[in-house]
Amino acid sequence: MNKDKKYSVEVRVWIEETEGAFLGIGKIWLLENIRKTGSITNAAKEMKMAYRQAWQLVEEMNQRAESPLVAKLLGGKGGGGAKLTEAGEKAIAVFYEVEKRIKEFAQRETQNLKF
After folding, report:
1. Under a CB-based contact definition with an 8 Å cutoff, are residues 17 and 64 in contact?
2. In whole angstroms, what is the distance from residue 28 CA to residue 109 CA?
3. Under CATH, which number does the domain 20-111 receive?
4. Confidence class of residue 1 from pLDDT cuts 50, 70 and 90?
5. What residues have CB less than 8 Å from 11, skipping those under 6 apart?
6. What is the C-alpha to C-alpha distance for residues 99 and 112, in angstroms, rounded to an integer?
7. Bigger pLDDT: 72 or 79?
8. Model pLDDT for residues 75-100, shown as the tens digit of each residue
9. Nearest to 23 by CA among 100, 102, 91
10. Domain boundaries, the chain
11. Closest among 28, 37, 44 to 92, alpha carbons compared
């Protein structure tokens, strides 16, 4: 018998909405990159994602949220852009808080594993 085996409880968190997956870590990273770069185009480049896919994810999040998470800025001298709304900032904070609590629970459960 091998008594050196180590086990851990691992979790991946996402938030569902009636129409399906609403927020997961990939969408959170997209939101954070929009915050950082000020545009969906640059956020997509940063993540090596097609602009069209990033735009679709933003549209989907905006439609499924109670209020839009990303506001598109109309072009001016420097062109358009995008920024997170208050709801977008809150979505990031809430996601990480929920994920942290769930991972802490999983870590406690890991200490109780016996096979």
Report:
1. yes
2. 26
3. 1.10.10.10
4. low
5. 102, 103, 106
6. 20
7. 72
8. 766 667 999 999 999 999 999 999 99
9. 91
10. 20-111
11. 28
